[in-house]
Design brief:
It contains ten helices and 23 strands. By secondary structure, the chain is an alpha+beta fold.
């Protein structure tokens, strides 16, 4: 009898560990990439998503759908919405004849699609390059796991949520490639490779003819167009990790190496970084990133340290940018705030003050201080970049100065936990969280804030003339 009970317990454990994570869509199928002519063909099935009628499927607007099928292989009719809720995607819905229902949402939907993108050689440059671009050049192709929507992505309107973190079982075929990588798994050899992720991951993909190496437990992918000065990793990187983790809770995908990706930009002058599961991608930034990463001394590397703490924070807070009208603002503001207080810890208060003054001046040069003194003003007056990367961090620093760092970090980490549960992020949620933390602070006799509206907290400028 005892043996039978133990056997049944083992079966139950195996069943639950093999099931996809509840609430995270599952993606499986095959994608074929031809880096010589820029073509992509996908046959991808999306399932295990919330069956919400007020939803849509996002796919890059440069990809053409051949057909949609349900789990029985029945071809489904679909409509493209006039406007997409996100990025470089078109939004699709499956109509229904039932007047009581808005859209038909099958338990599983398969997308068969194809697209062709320009391929740029070393001798020619595109007019523009950006993160959401599905980019092809002599070395290969890249697509981020969110903005470019290379894979079909589920979207729910009720909470403004992009369900881009997925578990997956994907096969990639690329005849002219040497290596392929999808974030959440590890680098694999071409021309054909299968990738799996049992935990929700952002499926950023690179495929091409790359140089691959390993340093300090990290895998490194580099464009072969730059043969000199290859990557190496010193203690500066561990300083980035330690500083970030001292402020925000952080869980990485286990049993998978961390991956650095360095690629050329298509236009030859743009440069940026982004973070996808267990991965930091640098496009056109190699000239400063490499010396920093190979170093064992942070001196004279304020900007590089700041950039990498920002990106590593994104890896720790992947769900923060997924849902709600304030999710993108908070996603970037939290990462920049952690970067700024890390600068203070490593380089001192004077360096932090200089950074704060730069942020203040970038706003005051364009607007009178009275027009952007609080979040409500900023949302009406500033462009999206200034809201997310400038005013948002200044607001968190104001909380820090007024109510203490412990209070601010408790607020941020509580927000991260809420986002992991898929909770809609709006003003009401933020005010409720501030009120809760305030009551806890009073109970523990800590410094507390007045129970006001976060939209109306006034951000005061520090005096940049004082030495």
């Amino acid at each position: 009898m005892l043996r039978m009970i133990n056997f049944l317990l083992c079966v139950v454990v195996l069943l639950f560990t093999s099931l996809p994570v509840l609430g995270s869509p599952t993606m499986r199928g095959t994608i074929i990439i031809d880096i010589s002519d820029g073509t992509i063909t996908g046959d991808i099935t999306l399932e295990n998503f919330e069956r919400d009628e007020n939803s849509a499927y996002l796919l890059n607007h440069g990809l053409n759908i051949k057909e949609l099928r349900d789990s029985s292989g029945v071809i489904l009719k679909y409509n493209r919405l006039q406007e997409s809720p996100r990025y470089e995607s078109s939004a699709y819905v499956i109509p229904t004849n039932d007047k009581k229902s808005r859209n038909y949402v099958p338990s599983s939907v398969s997308f068969h699609y194809t697209g062709k993108f320009p391929v740029y050689s070393n001798s020619e440059k595109s007019a523009k390059d950006w993160k959401g671009n599905i980019a092809f050049n002599d070395s290969g192709m890249r697509a981020d796991g969110l903005q470019s929507a290379l894979f079909p992505t589920f979207f729910t309107f009720k909470n403004d949520r992009v369900h881009d973190l997925v578990t997956y079982d994907l096969t990639v075929i690329c005849a002219a490639c040497s290596h392929i990588y999808i974030a959440g798994d590890k680098v694999r050899s071409a021309p054909k490779a299968t990738f799996t992720a049992a935990l929700p991951s952002s499926p950023m993909i690179v495929a091409g003819k790359y140089k691959i190496s390993s340093q300090q437990g990290a895998d490194i992918i580099e464009s072969n167009t730059k043969e000199e000065n290859h990557f190496s990793v010193g203690t500066n990187w561990s300083d980035v990790i330690e500083s970030t983790k001292s402020y925000v809770s952080c869980e990485m995908v286990k049993n998978r190496p961390f991956v650095f990706v360095e690629l050329d930009s298509l236009d030859g002058y743009s440069g940026w970084m982004w973070a996808s599961t267990n991965t930091i991608v640098s496009v056109g930034n190699g000239s400063t990133l490499k010396p920093f990463l190979r170093g064992n001394n942070l001196e004279n590397h304020v900007e590089d340290f700041s950039f990498l703490v920002h990106e590593y924070t994104h890896l720790c807070t992947e769900t923060l940018g997924q849902g709600g009208p304030l999710s993108l603002l908070l996603n970037e503001s939290v990462a920049e705030y952690v970067s700024l207080i890390s600068i203070e810890k490593v380089f001192g208060q004077a360096v932090l003050k200089n950074k704060i003054c730069e942020l203040q001046n970038s706003i005051s040069d364009a607007f009178p201080a009275s027009r952007v003194k609080n979040l409500k003003n900023a949302m009406m007056s500033l462009d999206v970049f200034s809201q997310n990367y400038i005013f948002g961090p200044l607001l968190l620093l104001q909380l820090d100065r007024s109510y203490g760092r412990d209070f601010t970090l408790k607020f941020i980490n509580s927000l991260i936990e809420k986002s992991k549960k898929g909770i809609y992020i709006n003003i009401n949620l933020l005010n409720s969280m501030l009120s809760t933390i305030n009551k806890e602070s009073k109970k523990n006799k800590e410094i507390s804030t007045s129970e006001g509206n976060i939209e109306e907290i006034e951000v005061t400028n520090i005096d940049c003339n004082l030495k």
